[in-house]
Each structure stands twice: as C-alpha cells, then as structure tokens.
TrEMBL record:
One of its GO terms (molecular function) is endonuclease activity. Gene3D superfamilies: CRISPR-associated endoribonuclease Cas6/Csy4. This is Type I-F CRISPR-associated endoribonuclease Cas6/Csy4. GO terms for biological process: maintenance of CRISPR repeat elements.
C-alpha cells in the first residue's frame, strides 16, 4: 500500500453523483474479481456522514495499480471521471480500515434461515424473529446490482478509526477489508 490514485467524478447534469459512483464501483468490482489478488483497496476520502463524496481512491502497490489501470475496466466511464496518476503515499500518513457492513434487514429471510437451520415451524420462527428485528444502518452506501441475481442491493461502507500503523491483509473484490488498512491523508 505504498501508492494511490484518485478517480474524481466530473459533474454531470444527467446523473447524480451517487449513481455515477455506484456504477464506477460496480465496474471496479468486476475488474478486481477478475484479478482476484486482493492487493487493491479503496477509500472515499471526501466521505462525510451519509455521503461518500465524489472521489474514489485506489490504494496498492505501484505494479498492482498499473496493472488494474492498464485493463479496460473504465470503459464507458471515462467521460464521467478525471484520473490522477499513481503517486507515492505521503510519509507519516495514518491508516484506517474501510469495510463493508451488512445489515440484518430482512426478518423474513432470518425466519427462513431459522426454519431451515433449526427445524423451527413458521410460527416458532415468527415468534423468535418479529418484524421489529429488522436492523437499519446509518452509514453511507452505494446501490449495486448483483451479477448472479440481478437484484439491487445497498453496499454499506464504514471508515474505521484512524490508526498510527498499517495493518496488512487482503481486500475483497470490492476493495474492502475487515482487517487490512489503507493509508488515510
């Protein structure tokens, strides 16, 4: 994680920034899934409260970033973004985990799971998992479309606390990790 590059969304009268950012992260996800090496992380340096901002930052080694950017993953998005070149991370930068958080938001799904895994009757599952069990998150999110089911789903993003030292690890095909940190500056 010694280099980074920024991808900034250009203002567009036809699209809201969050829709463009969601499309950009969807394309990045497909590219990172193809690479399958877990060496590129992401962050949203302009994130505030429920807004992820209009800039996506990619973190990784210089060769990993060059390899990713050498592929054609930005096809169809180049008119909507402004790219920086990969540059070295500033000396003394702090670090933080940027991870995906999933809400247990569907009581019906939780009930089906209770029935299947614990042999409960529908009535027992209803009593154990009431409608009020739905969890809501107060985190910014992207709306993505599942490649397997075609359904749209929210990908909630949480920026963890600032840390003095980097924590190594690998990143998912979304560029997120529960343990590995990215530089923050």
């Amino acid at each position: 994680m010694d280099h980074y590059l920024d991808i900034r969304l250009r203002p567009d009268p036809d699209f809201v920034a969050i829709d463009l950012l969601s499309a950009l992260v969807s394309k990045l996800h497909r590219a990172l899934a193809r690479l399958a090496d877990g060496k590129v992380g992401i962050s949203f340096p302009d994130s505030k409260a429920m807004y992820l901002g209009d800039r996506l930052r990619l973190h990784g080694g210089l060769s990993s970033l060059q390899s990713l950017m050498g592929s054609d993953w930005l096809k169809g998005m180049r008119d909507h973004v402004q790219l920086s070149e990969p540059v070295a991370v500033p000396v003394g930068a702090k670090h933080r985990v940027v991870k995906r958080v999933q809400a247990k938001s569907s009581p019906e799904r939780l009930r089906r799971r209770q029935i299947k895994r614990h042999g409960m009757t529908p009535q027992q599952a209803q009593e154990k998992v009431p409608d009020s069990a739905a969890e809501t998150l107060s985190l910014p999110y992207l709306l993505l479309r599942s490649a397997s089911t075609g359904q749209r789903f929210p990908l909630f993003v949480e920026h963890g606390p600032l840390l003095e030292a980097a924590v190594p690890g690998s990143f998912s095909s979304y560029g997120l990790s529960d343990v590995a940190t990215v530089p923050w500056f």
